[in-house]
Amino acid sequence: MRLVFDTDVFIKYRDSITDDDIRKMALSIVVLFELTATTTSAADLRHFENLKRQFEKDGLLLFPTRSDWWECAKAVSRLRHGEKSVSHGRTPKDPKARRLQNDALIARTAQVNGCYVVTANVKDFQRLKPYLKFWLVSADEYFR
Fold first, then answer.
1. Most CB contacts within 10 A, which of 2, 72, 102, 140?
2. Residue 98: is its pLDDT beyond 90?
3. pLDDT tens digits for 24-37?
């Protein structure tokens, strides 16, 4: 099973990521967007362009489909309004759930492509668990 690093892993664990990790992963276009949109360095921008090219060439650049967008929108809406999930009870309303859009897209595209998400932001991803099925590993655990 391949892994998908969340954006925060590329930032917080940059020096811990090995070539072996890169060979084991797929890359979410959502993560690549977040990294590229926030870069302040031309060298980092070139690095992200190279990553994009390589993962695209290898068929490991993951894109959300129309269905992924739709399922994520429903999940975030349910979380926002505190609606009951299929397998869990009611959750408290979460008016800030909209900011989880990208996390939902990362989780959903990882899952439908048979990958698991590695993140340092476990808390936000856990909030999505009642509404989206996906595999999650803490970055601390992964890099132990």
1. 72
2. no
3. 999 999 999 999 99
CA distance 143 to 87: 31
Count the Cβ atoms, other than its own, within 10 Å of residue 38.
10
Q: Tell me if 112 sits within 8 A of 134, measured CB to CB.
A: no
Task: List the one residue out of 113, 14, 16 whose CA is nearest residue 60.
Answer: 113
Q: Enumerate domains of the chain plus CATH numbers.
A: 2-142 (3.40.50.1010)
3-state secondary structure 6-75: CHHHHHHCHHHCCHHHHHHECEEHHHHHHHHHHCCCHHHHHHHHHHHHHHHHCCCEECCCHHHHHHHHHH
CB-based burial label for 42 (10 Å; 0-12, 13-18, 19+): exposed
Name beta bridge partners: 5. Answer: 118
Residue pair 84/125 in contact by the 8 Å Cβ criterion: no
- Please state, for a pLDDT cut of 90, what percent of the chain lies above it: 84
Question: Please, which residues bridge with residue 137 across strands?
Answer: 118
